Amino acid sequence: MTAAPLAGQSWGMTETPDTAAAADIAALSFEAAMGELETIVRRLESGDVSLEESVALYERGHALRAHCEARLAAAQARIEQVGLGADGQPAGTKPFGEG
C-alpha cells in the first residue's frame, strides 16, 4: 500500500512513506503528538472517512501512541524521588521507582 505525502510534506529520493512518517513523528513533542492523536480519534469516530483513509489514520495513530508512550517512559526515568533520612531530612535522591 503506497500513500501520498500528507499536506505540507514531501518525500525525498531516499524516503519512503514509513521513514518520512517515523521522522515526522519523532520530531513531535508529547503534547503535539497527543493533540494529533485526539484529532485522529475524532475523525475515525465520525465515520466520515473512506476505508483507505481510515486505515492510514489508524496506522498513524498507532505510531503516535507508541511515540507518546516512549516520551512518557523517558520522562518517568528522569524523575527522581527525594529520599529521607532517619531524622526526616532529605538524604539525597534516587531514580523514580526504586524502593
Structural class: mainly alpha
3D shape = elongated
Secondary-structure element order, N to C: HHHEE
Beta-strand percent range: 5-15%
Number of helices: 3
In round numbers, the mean pLDDT is 81
Number of strands: 2
Helix residue percentage: 55-70%
Distance between the termini: 48 Å
**Residue runs with pLDDT of under 50 for 5 or more positions:** 7-11
The major β-sheet equals: 2 strands, antiparallel
Strand order of the largest sheet: 1-2
Radius of gyration: 20 Å
In total, the number of domains comes to 1
Short description:
With 99 residues, the protein is mainly alpha-helical.
Describe this structure in words.
There is one protein chain. This protein has 99 residues and is mainly α. Helices cover 56% and strands 11% of the residues. The chain has three helices and two strands. The chain has helices spanning 17-26, 30-46, 51-78, and strands at 80-84, 90-95. Strands 1-2 form a two-stranded antiparallel ribbon. β1 (80-84) and β2 form a beta hairpin. The longest helix is centred in the middle third of the chain and has 28 residues, at 51-78. It is elongated and about 65 Å long.
